[in-house]
Amino acid sequence: MANQEDLAKPPSSLQSFLEDLHCKYKPLQNGAVANYIPELAKVDPDSFSICIVTVDGEVYEVGDSQQLFTIQSISKVFVYGLALEDHGRDYILTRVGVEPTGDAFNAIILDEQSKRPYNPMVNAGAIATTSLIKGSGATERLNRMLDMFRRYIGRDVFVDISVFTSERTTGHRNRAMAHLMLNFGMIDEPIDTALDLYFQQCAVMVNCHDLAVMAATLANKGVNPMTKEQAVNSRYVKDILSVMYTCGMYNFAGEWAYKVGIPAKSGISGGIIAVVPDKMGIAVFSPRLDARGNSVRGVKVCEELSQHLGLHLFECARLVKSQE
Ligand code: DON
Q1: Which domains does the chain have, with CATH numbers?
Q2: Any ligand 1 atom below 6 A from CB of 166
Q3: Using a 6 Å cutoff on CB, does residue 107 contact ligand 1?
Q4: Does pTM surpass 0.90?
């Protein structure tokens, strides 16, 4: 149970807590690496890193936090922010809802009445969101996206062509969803144009340290705490964090909100980011997934971090502290 003392833990104790967590969960081998995108199956399943970046730019990390992997669904959070900047909240709401589905991330469903995809964190909603990214032509749109990732991370990023090609060749389910949305006018362009951009955003290479900086940027009102660059207009941060909170962990989102209590997003390659507003960004990378597509070790580590540091948004000790 968290108390005021836990909340005030000195930095060195946070580093040793991360090291303890890493030791504790390293032997855990439950779950399986995603293989429906064939290239993803090549990852070392034992990879495991944890990184925390505070809004003051302090970094705590353990494991190989420089190991690169594709960002996958975690990209959806940031592309949603770019779409909000491109079109504003009201228009985006007409194209993509904000309701959790309670279904798997790749469910082929749209809202019965509005025909909108339910939210931007599931595949259907993410594809519709990506199709809204502005730019004259595929190259400019991709470059705008890559530049957006650069602002959050603080370095240039690139797309892993083999993962992109692998998903493009095998992504029939996403293609089916895109067709459905084209049919209902929720996508206004040839589906392959939208899907290519979506598959490219999912194949952007990041490491655990990068993800923690990205999460910390959201915790810091959209300003990258390392470079001080504004990565996203601060007015949209609450929209992004709200959908992360209610939809970011798919059909585990309710239990996550109950137990961990902070906005988060997982990706099929094994990453999880979590955002503690005004405090820190957390990232875990471990590729073995549970049945809902969330990293097994990642969920465990975040549960323990939240409990130990009193991070749950409705934690009384935290609420008392913020009133002082
Ligand atoms: O569209 C897909 O299926 C993948 N590119 C991304 C899915 C994903 O990361 C879901 N996350 N748990």
Answers
A1: 4-67+208-227+247-323 (3.40.710.10), 73-202 (3.40.710.10)
A2: no
A3: no
A4: yes
